[in-house]
Specification:
Length: 255
């Protein structure tokens, strides 16, 4: 099953646009071979779940549209000003949580140690974690086999094997994010193979072969089919294009 993650980031600043977009996605006929996860800013969670089209779709347990969040803290509660915890998300029906997005790593100073704690907490809470990894520069030939592999090892440190079934890894090369220049499907596949090999070294080949690996980085309606149809890639993590209704619906149409 292909997994399409819509990461709205902070592009949408109007609740009406948020409900209009989620309504359009919820009404779209999505093939049974795909699942779509909408990750709005926290402030819009209530607007999304109250959208009639989304509510109707969510009432169907077989619905292909799910709700996710862009980040989460590693504790349930406490003196953590400004943080959002998994306990707060329960009433919204959140199923997925993005962890370690490159923009949080690079602009907000998140370390692998912090990401590891978040990842463990998300998995322990029963949510599916979308772990983001990726190199800064493609020119470095060692970037994927060494840098990305090291991120995977550090972020998964101490995570029990049974939890890996609730893990998704998104390969998002930092140089491709927001630049309009996407990676090639073949190079994205090579990165996915390195990620699975690293997971296999830790947990064994059986667990690694079942791991879902996505691609993210300047995905749009034109290049999305080439990644979606690439054998060995299990879906997409889409940023800005997921906030353009026409663009995103075109991507869903071409799954």
């Amino acid at each position: 099953m292909k997994l399409i993650i819509a990461n709205w980031k902070a592009y949408i600043t109007d609740s009406k646009k948020a409900t209009d977009l989620v309504g359009a996605v919820s009404k779209t006929k999505i093939k049974k071979s795909a699942e779509v996860v909408i990750c709005p800013p926290f402030i819009y969670l209530s607007f999304v779940v109250s959208c009639s089209a989304f509510a109707k779709a969510s009432a169907d347990k077989q619905s292909s549209v799910k709700l996710g969040v862009q980040d989460v803290f590693w504790e349930e509660s406490g003196a953590y000003t400004g943080e959002i915890t998994t306990a707060m998300l329960g009433k919204f029906g959140v199923k997925y949580a993005i962890v370690g997005h490159s923009e949080r790593r690079n602009r907000l100073g998140e370390t692998d140690e912090m990401i590891n704690k978040k990842l463990k907490h998300v998995l322990e809470s029963g949510l599916t974690a979308i772990l983001c990894v990726g190199e800064r520069e493609r020119e470095d030939r060692k970037a994927v086999p060494e840098i990305v592999a090291e991120q995977v090892r550090a972020d998964l440190a101490g995570v029990p094997p049974p939890f890996i079934k609730k893990l998704v890894v998104a390969y998002e090369p930092i140089w491709a994010i927001g630049t309009g220049v996407a990676d090639t499907p073949d190079d994205a596949l090579s990165a996915a193979l390195y990620i699975r090999k690293t997971v296999a070294d830790i947990y064994g080949a059986k667990i690694a072969s079942a791991l879902r690996v996505l691609y993210g980085g300047s995905v749009n309606a034109q290049n999305a089919p080439s990644f979606i149809n690439q054998e060995g890639l299990d879906g997409l993590l889409i940023g800005r294009s997921s906030t353009d209704k026409k663009e995103f619906l075109e991507i869903l149409k071409n799954i």
